[in-house]
Amino acid sequence: PPGFPCCMYVLKQCLSGCRHFSKPCVSLKHSGTCPLKAAGSGPCACCALERQLREMLVSADGTALSPDEVVSVLHHISPAFEPGMQQDAQEFWVKLLEMLGEEASMCTLLRSSAAADASAHQAIRVAAAAAATGEPKQDLGSVECTDQIFTGVCQNGRRCMRCQHVTTLGAAEDYKTLMLPIDMVSGCRVFVSCVY
């Protein structure tokens, strides 16, 4: 429908195809226990996205679905996004991942403190220690696991063409987006650079 940015449709289609992200959405694992919703702390992008993806996956009859749930939290995702305005899908993706990550952290803290006041500080320290060692904070069965699913590690290096020795350059860096050049070939866009 008019008034909804194409980037929302694009991202919903991509996320529905990402099995590790979309599968938990069908069971509404996050929405059923969302501490942000229970605390009444405003709109939750995790809940909205999870409900939208569930609706899309469950009613796979080819009917176009309006992204109403995501539009309702659009200003919460980023004040720069407004209904009816076209936006850059890359920018929307980055802002959405940031928001989902922030909400996942808040949910983890709220769940930890609700478990027991005495052990809340210990749970937070354990979670911080796990994050420092690279251990996953939660399983991959929740919409809250965006960091584990969508963060990659990039390490630059040089390969000697004679002996094939690889020298790494600098430290490994986390990334959530990977820009690939797209060249025009015979009027069609194709990926020239492939990741193999």
UniProtKB/TrEMBL annotation:
Residue ranges annotated for the USP domain, each copy included: 1-196
Biological process according to GO: protein deubiquitination
GO CC annotation: cytosol; nucleus
GO MF: cysteine-type deubiquitinase activity
PROSITE patterns (alphabetical): USP_3
Pfam family membership, one: UCH
Signal sequence annotation: none
Xref: Gene3D superfamilies: Cysteine proteinases
Protein name as it appears in the record: USP domain-containing protein
